[in-house]
Design brief:
single chain; 6-stranded mixed beta sheet; C-N_Hydrolase_sf; C-N_Hydrolase; Hydrolase; UPF0012_CS
Length: 271
């Protein structure tokens, strides 16, 4: 199969002259997705329409799962005939709560998966205080395998990824807006999560700067052996990789470490 990671820029000056608005970003993203006809899966970054670090825009640009971003991405997926992981949106729930929500569309543009980010970044600021947290592990069956959904900061929590493989995930898509200052962590964690769960991992990070935070870029595709199949640079670009989903079954058979998991060990009480 072929997958493409669209490392969308969130800079207002990339491409030159682009207006820094959600509408402009939607038009740009939709055009790039429509150009991926022939792919099986396309992945976009985290919160690319509003900006993952532009907290002052979240309330203004919040929308429902049937809002303008979902509508534009549904149409683009249908036009290209691809499964589209549309990154994530600032979702406003009926009660007014905001969520960082990933959306997965099928080749007909139907919404097949919705995941609200469980681990919110910021400690006592930002996302951790402005958004609600998800409570559900989400996997979606597709015509090429079972896709697990996670977002950015989730990479630091292996429990979630073990939950995803227990739910059948063979490929995990991770949209992100990872800071450039912690690029080394991004590179380590993406390979680690793929290797330890014996899955393909497609991690798509934004490029550019927004909310004063420079993005890491370096979107990456990793196979179940932890081998990097392709890595993007720092600017806006599309990374495309070809791979065989049957490698998941082969690797799990040749190196059946997941079979040896011991889950009944009780941790000692803290002193």
């Amino acid at each position: 199969m072929r997958a493409s990671l669209i490392q969308l820029s969130v800079d207002s000056t990339d491409p030159p002259g682009a207006a820094d608005s959600a509408d402009e970003r939607r038009r740009r993203a939709a055009a790039l997705v429509r150009g991926r006809a022939g792919d099986d899966l396309v992945v976009l970054p985290e919160l690319w329409a509003a900006g993952a670090w532009s907290y002052d825009r979240w309330d203004r640009d919040a929308e429902g799962v049937d809002g303008p971003t979902a509508q534009a991405m549904s149409a683009a997926a249908r036009h290209a005939g691809v499964w589209l992981h549309a990154g994530s949106i600032v979702e406003r729930d009926d009660d007014g709560t905001l969520y960082n929500t990933a959306l997965l569309f099928d080749r007909d543009g139907e919404l097949r998966g919705r995941y609200r980010k469980i681990h919110r970044y910021g400690f006592d600021t930002g996302e951790a205080t402005l958004m609600g947290g998800g409570e559900e592990i989400v996997t979606v069956p597709t015509d090429f395998g079972v896709v697990g959904l996670a977002i950015c900061y989730d990479l630091r929590f292996p429990e979630l990824f073990r939950g995803l493989i227990d739910a059948g995930a063979e490929l995990i898509a991770v949209p992100a807006a990872w800071p450039a200052a912690r690029l080394a962590h991004w590179q380590l964690l993406t390979r680690t999560r793929a290797l330890e769960e014996q899955v393909f991992l497609l991690a798509c990070c934004a490029s550019g700067t927004h909310g004063g935070m420079r993005q890491a870029g370096h979107s990456v595709a990793v196979d179940p052996w932890g081998t990097v199949l392709g890595r993007a640079g720092t600017g806006q670009e599309t990374l495309s990789v070809d791979f065989d989903m049957a490698e998941v079954t082969r690797m799990r058979s040749e190196l059946p470490v997941l079979r040896d998991r011991v889950l009944a060990v009780e941790a000692p009480a803290r002193p």
